[in-house]
Amino acid sequence: MVDVNENPFDGTDAIFERKQPLKKDTFTPDTIFHRDEEIEFYINALQDVIVGHDPNNVFVYGPTGVGKTAVTKWVRDKLEEKAEAEDIPLTVVGPINCRNYRSAYALVNTLVNEFRDPENQLPESGYSTDSVFEFLYEEIEAVGGNVLIILDEIDNIPADARNDFLYELPRAEANENTPITDAKVGLIGISNDLKFVDVLEPKVKSTLGEREIKFGPYDATELRDILGYYADIAFREDVLGEDVVPLAAAFSAQERGDVRQGLRILEKAGEYARMEGADGVTEAHTRRATDTIETDELLDYFEHDLSSQQALTYLATTLALIEPKHEASTKRIYNLYSSIAESSGRRVKSERKIYEFLDQLSMQGLVRSAERNLGRKGGRKYIYEVTDDATDIINAALQSSYSDAVPSNVNGILEHYLEDEATEFEAPDTTDDEQQNLWQFT
């Protein structure tokens, strides 16, 4: 029973000294571990700025949480420091996270405003896309000298604008139709999608990938060093059990070599210890954190990383997968997407848009597809699957703001799916209409 007259908040924290270091995106470390080779490649690519040559375009890629952005920021700071000491004209914009922009217009608008004073900001609407590009070129020419633009999660640039944007911007000073004559433009693109370059047009590949730097996943030993560094800053002295960091490192290495995931495990384990009023963080707290981390990460996708239409498409793909037929075709995904969008009062987009949403989910590594040849029937179709456990995705969706889009009988269907997976049961084929009748939308 809660005493409503007693304040439940505690003014002290026996577990955490500072939680910010565990929020990797908002904390800049003083030390970068196990990225000496990548830093060397980066320095070599940007050395031309210091010695008077045109800036190179650099493409940095690798899975999430492997140090791409942290290294980029460190190299950026050192480059600016050297340029200032040598009196070399240099303007660096970014990193700008492309995940926050759903159109080329919005992204270029933001880039323009990065150059402008606060009292002269470009409004969010009112101009054509060509006009905001022209404004950007004018701002680049106005600052002159070397201009480096850093775009993080560049794979999130909308598909319909990707090739034009990534081709035109790095070549702006060479284009006689732009006002750029004196400025020298370089683009640094950071991508979580290792296959991102493969889908670009050849001319864009050539322009964007003048210098490519690949970041691979960390192994368990490297993660132990990195997580230990952050843990020493974040936790109070002597509260971490000796197995906590090694266990978090081993789990993260086994999954995908992701520092961000390891930090989430440490934070979650610390919170469990604090909730219990424990004197320290134990192996049991850490194992409990690893058991829930997958759902937590997927919940972040639903709440922060995906647009509402992407989230509905992701949910529809998962529902299509767990149906008795176990085949998530594009048509089936669209039928389910339409039903869950309509039942939850959200706008239903066209079937053509579903292809775009599935492509975007694929680039984020959440779904993958296989092409199936229909043989004598002619034509081809694509079958999709999710890359995370269906149970984790459903649980995350039920905890998210999209819970109203989840069919009320999802747990029953999921239970049968898991039984079929365990027994390799092959259900009879059903039509799309028959499959539709399986679900209960409220």
UniProtKB/TrEMBL annotation:
<dbReference type="Pfam" id="PF22703">
    <property type="entry name" value="Cdc6_lid"/>
</dbReference>
<keyword id="KW-0067">ATP-binding</keyword>
<dbReference type="InterPro" id="IPR036388">
    <property type="entry name" value="WH-like_DNA-bd_sf"/>
</dbReference>
<keyword id="KW-0547">Nucleotide-binding</keyword>
<dbReference type="InterPro" id="IPR014277">
    <property type="entry name" value="Orc1/Cdc6_arc"/>
</dbReference>
<protein>
    <recommendedName>
        <fullName>ORC1-type DNA replication protein</fullName>
    </recommendedName>
</protein>
<feature type="binding site">
    <location>
        <begin position="66"/>
        <end position="70"/>
    </location>
    <ligand>
        <name>ATP</name>
    </ligand>
</feature>
<feature type="binding site">
    <location>
        <position position="218"/>
    </location>
    <ligand>
        <name>ATP</name>
    </ligand>
</feature>
<dbReference type="InterPro" id="IPR050311">
    <property type="entry name" value="ORC1/CDC6"/>
</dbReference>
<keyword id="KW-0131">Cell cycle</keyword>
<comment type="similarity">
    <text>Belongs to the CDC6/cdc18 family.</text>
</comment>
<dbReference type="InterPro" id="IPR049945">
    <property type="entry name" value="AAA_22"/>
</dbReference>
<dbReference type="InterPro" id="IPR036390">
    <property type="entry name" value="WH_DNA-bd_sf"/>
</dbReference>
<dbReference type="GO" id="GO:0016887">
    <property type="term" value="F:ATP hydrolysis activity"/>
</dbReference>
<dbReference type="GO" id="GO:0005524">
    <property type="term" value="F:ATP binding"/>
</dbReference>
<keyword id="KW-0235">DNA replication</keyword>
<dbReference type="GO" id="GO:0051301">
    <property type="term" value="P:cell division"/>
</dbReference>
<dbReference type="InterPro" id="IPR015163">
    <property type="entry name" value="Cdc6_C"/>
</dbReference>
<feature type="domain" description="Cdc6 C-terminal">
    <location>
        <begin position="314"/>
        <end position="398"/>
    </location>
</feature>
<dbReference type="Pfam" id="PF09079">
    <property type="entry name" value="WHD_Cdc6"/>
</dbReference>
<dbReference type="Pfam" id="PF13401">
    <property type="entry name" value="AAA_22"/>
</dbReference>
<dbReference type="GO" id="GO:0006260">
    <property type="term" value="P:DNA replication"/>
</dbReference>
<keyword id="KW-0132">Cell division</keyword>
<comment type="function">
    <text>Involved in regulation of DNA replication.</text>
</comment>
<dbReference type="InterPro" id="IPR055237">
    <property type="entry name" value="Cdc6_lid"/>
</dbReference>
<dbReference type="InterPro" id="IPR027417">
    <property type="entry name" value="P-loop_NTPase"/>
</dbReference>
